[in-house]
Amino acid sequence: MGFLLFSGKPRPAVTWWRDYALLDDTYTFVTGDNSVRNELEIEELRRNDLLAVLQCQASNNNITVPASVSITLDVNLLASVEVVLFRTAYSTSDNLQLKS
């Protein structure tokens, strides 16, 4: 989905959260500078992910409030439709109406 880079001394721990639940606490140090990278990948979005707030936090001590960035998921999914017909055969003269 995306990743964030944070830097500092000492290097921060970078974590992803959703509704106070930890999603990901794996991060890597970027070679050549003091940056830390955490990449969050969501395999499958569902309807209950609509308007979910994800927060990425960076903290390098227990004294100050972590630096954070929040995103809101705006998800557009295709509607699923199931059509069930009880008669097995229809002729061209039959007038059928399907309603969603």
From TrEMBL:
<protein>
    <submittedName>
        <fullName>Ig-like domain-containing protein</fullName>
    </submittedName>
</protein>
<dbReference type="InterPro" id="IPR036179">
    <property type="entry name" value="Ig-like_dom_sf"/>
</dbReference>
<dbReference type="InterPro" id="IPR007110">
    <property type="entry name" value="Ig-like_dom"/>
</dbReference>
<dbReference type="InterPro" id="IPR013783">
    <property type="entry name" value="Ig-like_fold"/>
</dbReference>
<feature type="domain" description="Ig-like">
    <location>
        <begin position="1"/>
        <end position="72"/>
    </location>
</feature>
